Amino acid sequence: MPVTNTPNASLEYEVHGSGPSLVLINGLGFGRWGWFKQVPDLSRRFAVITFDARRGSDRGLGVGDLAGDVADLLGHLGVNNAHVLGAPLGGFVAQELALSRPELVAGLVLVSTGYGGRGQARMSPGAMGKMLGLGALNPGQAARRGLEGATSERYRAENPDEFEGIVQKRLADSPSPASYNAQALAGARFDHSGDVGRISSPTLVIHGAEDRYVPPANARALAEAIPNAKLRVLEGAGHLVFVERATQVNREVAAFLAGGRA
Known about the structure:
Layout: E1 3-5, E2 9-16, E3 21-25, H1 39-42, E4 47-55, H2 63-77, E5 82-86, H3 89-100, E6 105-111, H4 125-132, H5 139-150, H6 153-158, H7 160-172, H8 177-189, E7 203-208, H9 216-225, E8 230-234, H10 241-244, H11 246-257
Parallel strand pairs: 3-4, 3-5, 5-6, 6-7, 7-8
Antiparallel strand pairs: 1-2, 2-4
């Protein structure tokens, strides 16, 4: 597996396909494996870049640091302009990159995310308990509860084996507790409510209508705040909309980044 070392992180990465570069930024607790439904499809149209950032120190970690890791990776690959797709914490990172390094971001896709800050709609206490795995007796049970809250009942009923595979990958390939907590704190501190209006990259916002972790109102607010952003809310899908409705999400992404209408 190719690895590049930056001043702050060691990044394991993969590049699949050819064409315009498209970097996928995963969310909290997920590695590059989480894009298992995007890479095979989108790599037929793009040079798809996925990565895992293994930081030497997570103390004081901020979303800006994570965006810097992405910029360093693109520099290592010799990519000076790329499409960027981020979901959910990855959506924060993608926004930060579009604001701090706009020359790098040709097109922006924000999935299951918002712009942060106290003005955002909050998840319910029940959803918070699911996400944190409250009451779980072991890490496996906690991960399962969190992923149950991230998906719709219909998806789990129709795809039990796939859901079980996600649970097992989440357990087998996840950040250390210290790294996970540092990333969670970085996301909690993130607030670009007053800044996203300066994003100049063409932007598509995709969200699941049944997202219990990031209420859909946040996606609508995000799309309204970014100039000329397009919004797509997919019915019947939860927080992991890019897994549950992968075919539709991939089609929307490819059409939008190709210059078509989402």
